[in-house]
Specification:
Keywords: Cell membrane, Membrane, Protein transport, Translocation, Transmembrane, Transmembrane helix, Transport. The chain is mostly helical. It has a domain at 6-76. The protein is built from 6 helices and no strands. The protein has helices at 6-20, 25-76, 83-92, 94-97, 108-114, 125-135. The longest helix is centred in the middle third of the chain and has 52 residues, at 25-76. The chain is elongated and about 105 Å long.
Length: 142
């Protein structure tokens, strides 16, 4: 980083011992270590902020590309009809207008409840019917 060689580092240590003195040298090294640690922490924080900004910029670019690709795909695929559009031709068809349409679709539980055979034993029948309807079980074979 600073390209300091061994001979230059030895020269700095000798000057420091002469100027500071051997008695205050440990305290000076501790202080220098704290300053170096603070500088590293600040540079690491700065670097992480720059990295976060780069990641956000890359994400925005990717989201823009994905949006453009999604729009291109949506334009190229045919539009599927909605449920209302599909119901309109069925309701206006002449052959189906004579038939009555059920008010609610048949679910497995209503089917099971409607197709239950009458119970042979009066005490056991209703409890079994409700259990089968709750569990959506098909009726037992005859």
């Amino acid at each position: 980083m600073f390209d300091i060689g061994a001979s230059e580092l030895l020269m700095v240590v000798i000057v420091a011992v002469v100027v500071i003195g051997p008695k205050d040298m440990p305290m000076a090294m501790r202080t220098a270590g704290r300053w170096i640690g603070k500088m590293r922490k600040i540079s690491g924080h700065f670097r992480s902020g720059i990295d976060a900004m780069v990641r956000e910029a890359e994400l925005e670019e990717m989201e823009k590309k994905w949006r453009e690709q999604n729009e291109a795909i949506m334009r190229s695929t045919p539009k599927l009809p909605t449920a209302e559009e599909m119901q309109a031709p069925i309701a206006s068809a002449p052959e189906l207008s004579d038939q009555s349409t059920p008010s609610e679709p048949e679910t497995p539980s209503t089917f099971a409840a409607e197709t239950q055979p009458p119970a042979a034993d009066a005490g056991d029948g209703p409890a079994k019917d409700t259990r089968q309807a709750e569990l959506h079980l098909p009726p037992p074979p005859p």
